[in-house]
Each structure stands twice: as C-alpha cells, then as structure tokens.
Amino acid sequence: MDSGWRGFSGDGRGFLAAGAALVIGGALSLLTGRPIFGAILLIIGGLLMYVGDEKLAK
Hints:
mainly alpha; about 0% strand
C-alpha cells in the first residue's frame, strides 16, 4: 500500500505536504508573537505548495 509520501520526488505530494507543514508552522508563529519568522514560513510554505500543485497538474 502506497502512502503517497515520496519526499521531494514523485508527483508533487511531498511538496504539498512540506508546504502545508510550513504554512501551519507559520500561522502558529504569527499567533505566538513571532511575526517575521511566521511570515517567512508562510511564504516558503506557499511556494512549496504552489510547486507541488504544478507538479500534480502535469
């Protein structure tokens, strides 16, 4: 049974998972009072999710 997790290779699900984790971490950082660190995590997570979505679309 394939869980779909292949790291950064495969069909883009790894990028989506890593991006989602960074977005969640960024949101939590914003809530706990670290705005710069949280914003950086949100941006990087969003970019990873975009790349993963583009890889899945192909």
